[in-house]
């Protein structure tokens, strides 16, 4: 028995120091969960009926009948159908792969923000098993493509590759107009942290409109087989979108941006298995406390705090004045681009609570502090098991593996806190 325990301790020490192994495990398990679900249901889920039908028309050479969105996302969906057929696998394969790619990019973003490897892995885990994020990357809608290009743009920006960042944001806009909010994120972060060489910085980000308009010109030619003016087409898209207001459209699915956090909004995409557009309650409950704490951390020059605030401000808070000024309709799944910022903030928030409790807490606070992260992971997994449409056999099995992994990764939380492992996380 002693030899077994010793061997297990050695194995645990070795694997816990290999973050890429854990990253592959997280991505692999999430991929399996998606593929276990990809053929269910065999009918269109929510807005798939619009985007898949439009993709089919594009493949048939009949053009597009959805003029209010740029076409890149629908062309990617069409690519899946062309490769794998007009079936649920063909509809959803590229949204799933895009979501998985987004998780990998998210890990790299966290490392650029100087988060330790295991906290970066925790961010990826929270994002991968957050219900709204999981749902949007399970079905053939446009949002997942836009968000993945957006996060890739953030990574390029953090690496100092501003032209590449602008180009990726241009691709995000080609998938869905809301990709333009990424420019607000980057602009706000630059104003807070740099403010140097503003002319060069602004010029480099012109790559976003250049890629957008050039890409739109090329994509419209692919769809229609003729040359169309991308500026005129964009003006038409914006005009059509301006008609979609709360005053014109009446449905229970609509919600104002402030309702997303002050209330608990749910849209049922499909009844059984239940595809529901709803933020995991484990994440939802901590968004505001974590963001308030990020204000404190930003004052102490934490890169993760500053960027998560800029990300949250550009992709969520900006919706509030947009809603008030334009009366533009909005839905809970419009919060999806901000989920990544929330996962970063909550990870830093929980980690710092745990460290401080073990450093300066007394009595039960000191005893319970090492369990802060594992307890939250367990609560988050329970939310995923309850909310996600994956079969219970698959999600319970994956949940057990995820939790064991979290316990192994955070087994030294007490020692790490005492040593001050991450500094300004």
Describe the structure.
- With 425 residues, this protein is mainly alpha-helical.
- Strands 1-2 form a two-stranded antiparallel ribbon.
- A hairpin with a 4-residue loop joins strand 1 and strand 2.
- The longest helix is centred in the first third of the chain and has 25 residues.
- The C terminus is likely disordered.
Summed up:
By secondary structure, the protein is mainly α.
Secondary structure: helix percent: 55-70%
Mean pLDDT: 91
Model regions low in confidence, pLDDT < 50 over at least 5 residues: 412-423
The coarse overall form would be globular
Task: Provide the β-strand percentage band.
Answer: under 5%
Structural class by SSE content:
mainly alpha
Strand order, main sheet: write it out: 1-2
Task: Report the order of strands and helices.
Answer: HHHHHHHHHHHHHHEEHHHHHHHHH
Tell me the major beta sheet. 2 strands, antiparallel
Compute the gyration radius: what is it?
22 Å
> How many H/I helices?
23
User: What's the total count of β strands?
Assistant: 2
Distance between the amino and carboxyl termini: 39 Å
């Amino acid at each position: 028995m002693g030899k077994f325990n010793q061997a297990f301790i050695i194995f645990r020490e070795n694997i816990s120091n290999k973050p890429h192994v854990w990253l592959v495990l997280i991505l692999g398990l999430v991929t399996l969960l998606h593929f276990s679900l990809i053929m269910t249901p065999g009918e269109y889920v929510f807005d798939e009926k619009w985007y898949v039908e439009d993709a089919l028309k594009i493949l048939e050479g009949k053009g597009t009948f959805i003029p209010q969105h740029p076409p890149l996302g629908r062309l990617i969906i069409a690519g899946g159908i062309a490769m794998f057929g007009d079936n649920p696998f063909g509809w959803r394969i590229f949204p799933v792969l895009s979501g998985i790619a987004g998780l990998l990019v998210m890990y790299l973003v966290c490392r650029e923000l100087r988060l330790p490897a295991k906290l970066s892995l925790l961010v990826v885990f929270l994002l991968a098993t957050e219900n709204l994020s999981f749902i949007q990357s399970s079905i053939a809608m446009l949002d997942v493509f836009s968000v993945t290009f957006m996060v890739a743009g953030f990574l390029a920006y953090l690496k100092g590759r501003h032209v590449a960042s602008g180009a990726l944001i241009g691709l995000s806009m080609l998938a869905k107009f809301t990709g333009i909010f990424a420019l607000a994120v980057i602009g706000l972060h630059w104003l807070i942290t740099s403010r140097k060489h503003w002319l060069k910085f602004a010029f480099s980000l012109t790559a976003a409109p250049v890629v957008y308009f050039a890409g739109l010109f090329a994509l419209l030619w692919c769809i229609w087989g003729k040359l169309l003016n991308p500026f005129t087409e964009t003006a038409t898209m914006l005009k059509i979108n301006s008609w979609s207001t709360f005053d014109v459209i009446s449905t229970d699915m609509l919600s104002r941006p402030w309702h997303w956090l002050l209330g608990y909004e749910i849209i049922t995409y499909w009844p059984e298995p239940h595809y529901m557009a709803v933020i995991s309650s484990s994440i939802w409950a901590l968004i505001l406390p974590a963001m308030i704490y990020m204000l404190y951390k930003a004052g102490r020059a934490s890169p993760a705090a500053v960027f998560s605030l800029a990300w949250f401000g550009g992709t969520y808070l900006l919706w509030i004045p947009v809603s008030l000024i334009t009366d533009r309709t909005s839905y809970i799944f419009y919060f999806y681009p901000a989920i990544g910022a929330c996962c970063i903030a909550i990870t830093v928030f929980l980690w710092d609570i745990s460290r401080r409790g073990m450093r300066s807490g007394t009595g039960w606070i000191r005893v319970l502090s090492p369990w802060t992260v594992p307890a939250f992971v367990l609560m988050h997994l329970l939310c995923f098991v309850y909310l996600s449409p994956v079969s219970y056999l698959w999600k319970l099995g994956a949940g057990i593996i995820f939790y064991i992994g979290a316990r192994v990764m955070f087994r030294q939380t007490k020692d790490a806190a005492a040593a001050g492992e991450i500094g300004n996380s």
